[in-house]
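FAQ: What does the model actually see?

It sees only this:
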Amino acid sequence: MSERLSDYFYELPEDLIASRPTEDRAASRMLVVDRATGEVRHSHFREFPDFLVPGDLVALNDSKVIKARLHSANGRMEVFLLERVEERTWKCLTRPGRKARVGNTIELAGTGATVREILEGGERILVFESEPDCELYGSVPLPPYLKREADPMDDDRYQTVYARNKGSVAAPTAGLHFTKEILSRIPHTFLTLHVGAGTFLPVKTEKIEDHQMHEEVYSITAKAAADLNAARRIVAVGTTVTRVMESQPPGPFQASDGRTSIFIRPPFEFAHTGALLTNFHLPCSTLLMLVSALAGRDLIRHAYEMAIRERYRFFSYGDCMLIV
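And it is asked to produce this:
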């Protein structure tokens, strides 16, 4: 069992961070990790359907990334939409914070927004005069480690081809590899988990059990619940899908809407996840802890060492790993 943050650190050459996607979504490399044998082998995502067996169901997150990064009309303030609280009301990050005191009004996104409250963590509750026009005024909220501004290419590529429920401020990146053609060839269903900015928050406590996980909103439809219950093995596409499924109460899946702050780390007994397609995660991240819980820390460490040696591309726009 690995309870220390330092157990999840690894050295990554900076040039292996994929700053842009491959030209073809399905052209990514795929490292296949077999938990039963400990074998790690190379493949390509285009071959993903070949790893499915009769009775498998691929579960995907259909959340859509919103253009959450906004700038005030005078250009002096950045506002990052985190979550809709109620109609015309959003929890946000503002920079610089001193310009967003309670009662101040900010002109942005084609409307005005008044600061109603400052939360304990420094987030602001903004009440807009009308819904902000993110499509016209916003930009895609790329992860900070990409170290670049979003451009028109990101409007399409930092979004899965099946995204439909708006609400995420970061992409469920394991799904970025899918094309509509590949999707048409596999049995699948959709869950929704709106990825929050907390996904980028580092773990700062050496004892990982002391880390406070962020909450995220999810939804399981009646159809999705029925599909999941009928599957022999569920292949989760991404840690977001895994977190939704593993946060459900014992027994068959039920249609539900809720919030989860589940922290999956070794040791953890998975109730629903039979296999997992995921990207390569940041050192010391909760996502790396999740995949280590599924496959074992030593096997994941070995797989990551192989991926680095073979120069796989890492993080959001990078290559992927299939854990079976």
